[in-house]
Amino acid sequence: FQTVGLKGIEDALLKAKTHLAASISRLRISGSALILDELLPMHLRTAEGISWTDEGAIASGWINTMRVLSKNEFIKDMSKLKLQLCNDTETGELDENKYVFDPICPKMINLHDKAREKLAVSDLVRDYRFIFLERSLCLGAATLAQAIRVARLCGPVVLTHSIAPRHTGYLAGLLADIEDAGKLLAFGVGDHRCEYEAYLTNLGVTLQQCTMFSEKYISSPSSVELERATVVLATPPCSYTGVRDIVDLAVARGGDINLLESLTSDTASGVKQPHVLLAEQFSTLKYALTRPNIQFLIYEVHTILPSETTEMIHQVVQYANQLAMEKYICEHLPKRKTLSKDGKIPKSIKTDVHRQEQSREHWEDQSQHEQMFLCKREDEEDEKLLDTTDIVIPDSDLFEVGTIDEIYGETNERMLDPGCFIAVIKRKEMMQFDSLFMIKVAESKGLFGDSDKQRNPKQKAEIPSAIRQTLQISRRGFKRIKVEIDRIAAPTHAWMLRAKNKRQPCPRHSRHIIRDENLLSMQICETRKRDAHRWWRDAITFLVDSKSHRDVMKDSRFYATRSDPFTQKPLYPFHAKKMPLKCHPQQRNLAFDFI
After folding, report:
1. SS (H, E, C) 199-259
2. Annotated region Disordered: where (predicted)?
3. Judging by beta carbons within 10 Å of its beta carbon (0-12, 13-18, 19+), is residue 163 exposed, middle or buried?
4. Which domains does the chain have, with CATH numbers?
5. Least crowded by CB within 10 Å, which of 18, 225, 366, 520?
């Protein structure tokens, strides 16, 4: 206790142990509690699956494979702590120094609760190689990972509510081991986003594997990854009446004291209002099932109330199917066409309108009984049209409630915790948005041209009705893309130049040449003017120097150089390299006067 800073709390409890024992005794006498369990509130005492005694208590946690290289390495580290792996013993019969791997949850082990303290102070926990987490909180994530493998689902995965950072890290670790699984999108973090990201970084989870969102799932901003998501793990807030270890849940949530106080209150009023929880659960499921690309959903709650479990599932599935049926009927209901394809009124209708205008007085004088008879006749025709129309809702638009046995292929419901409710909701016909499916959709929309003309008769094969129906349904989920093949196949300017033997001049290049010639002539003129000014200046300087040095003037020669129009650097001198200047008194005086 001194190492972890709890020595002061221990000393305070030792000093007050007599007063605490007396207080507990008075509570037992006043409540006629023969055992300590009878001191618990009634709504917690009767909760199924909760164990409040130390005898036979089981602790659980998961192995962080991002920090642990292999299973044998973890077994060796556990053997150093004198904890041995046992393969034949069931979870309920574990000894203090034995542990077993969970049959349903990957990477998870179960051990005796008395071995928790020994493992908690080890390097495995300090180095984030082993994470303590209640087994019931990992059942939904494990079922989701198994469903992705079996159904070969692809795309990002949505976590509607993050239960705890440890739970999010466990799900991200499972998805990282699946090849076709996409990024994890965790919502509902709120103000703890930085804390969650820091904890996931310590676990070894990268931003390419998991992205945290502060917003709720039902009010999240639209993004490409969210639209591509096909799998959802819905974990909305619940009453948590089925949690086995409430303290462990509060610790896993980062020390959620409010949750601990609400679950251990004397009455059930401490828990959030039931209608608020039910409303959020229904809105979360409704929003997820109405997304067009969602194919599979797992609903996980830790409660034993039917209103949050079975009743909620059947109500949401019925609502989603009813909404899908109404939408399909509205889109495919045959309507009376009063306009032609060109958007003009047909001639027959024009003649009828003209006749009606001519006999308007006759219609005004007609009795009200006849008008009601005509309206009633039209309504009967509409009803008859609805009855005769054979409307079949495709299975890809409808949802159904599945079982966990369909995912694992065997009876595994008995392995679930009694306080954990997991429901599987999937489409009756699931679509896989892989590369092959997208190619088929592109072919059906004509992006690769007319497939019937390009194919040989030998290569033609009949498309199954299920695939044809799936392709027809998928057209509504995507935008209608119209590509002009003739415009794409039109010859380009480069192709025309290569196709002809005679080279064609480029107009743009010709304009550049003309502009360069004009610029060159201007530069030459400016350079010549500049050279002339320099020659005069150098000649005057030469004459002035010759006056002061008359002895050297006889051997002196004047050199005139030119300049490059582009670089403005002096070039070689003229062909007449030496220009002798004869000294005449009048010319010298004129030069001096000019200066």
Report:
1. HHHHHCCCCCCEEECCCCHHHCCCCHHHHHCCEEEECCCCCCCCCCCHHHHHHHCCCCHHH
2. 349-368
3. buried
4. 136-331+398-427 (3.40.50.150), 524-544+557-571 (no CATH)
5. 18
